[in-house]
Amino acid sequence: MSEPPVKPVLQKPPGYKDPSSPAGQRRFRPPPRKPVLPPSFHPKKRKTSYGRACCCCFCIFFLIFLLLILICGAVFYLWFDPKLPGFHIQSFRISRFNVTKRPDGTYLDARTTTRLEVKNPNGKMIYYYGDMEVEVSLGEGGYETELGTTTVPAFTMLEKNTRSLRVETKASNKLVVDEVGNKLRARYRSKSLPVNVEARTKVGVGVAGLKIGMVGVTVKCDGMSKKQLDGGDMPKCVINMLKW
User: Fold this and answer.
1) If we measure between CA atoms, which residue out of 185, 201, 182 comes closest to residue 193?
2) Among 84, 91, 106, 199, which residue carries the largest CB count within 10 Å?
3) Does residue 38 register a pLDDT over 70?
4) pLDDT in tens, 90-137
5) Strands 210-225 and 238-241
6) Closest residue by Cα to residue 197 from 132, 104, 123, 125
């Protein structure tokens, strides 16, 4: 019998790799690890715009509120035309003034009467005054001497109204330095004795039936001489708000 024909061996194409061979099996490679960066290299998360929007809304409402206050203040000023009250020394009289030297010192005995004029120049506003403490002193600088304090009861000033307050003070046997007593007596005889009046009170405003809170006020009337007051001068006093 004849031998079966031999099958020709097929030639492998160039670059062919046998999958059953170890060289042809693919090796498993783990995925590459991400490098660990320090915290300073981490990207910052973006903040939401919620806080920024709230801030913008608050600023807008605040500006609108401020604008409304300015408009209301302008309307109030134009309509009511507010003016500060006026204070003047209407008259000042020294009914008694004696400087006596004794072995134990120098003593002052004085009595004064002051007329303090208060004006309300407003036509649409009312002023409410609390109890007013009025202090009177004579002299200036180092030899200024207090003569006492008088309290004037609370009162109300209507529109376009004027009121005269009578203030009496006295100093009985007040011990003073010899040099101060000599200066007071010399200035009194020459009618150049400085007169000082200071009033402390609280003032409230009434507008359209509404009463607005009380504010501390100090009124100072100084730098006047007895000769000026006797000649009929009415010096204007200075008003300091929120000062005591």
Assistant:
1) 185
2) 199
3) no
4) 888 999 999 999 988 899 999 999 999 999 999 888 999 999 999 999
5) antiparallel
6) 132
Amino acid letter for position 12: K
Tokens linked to 224: 């006047």
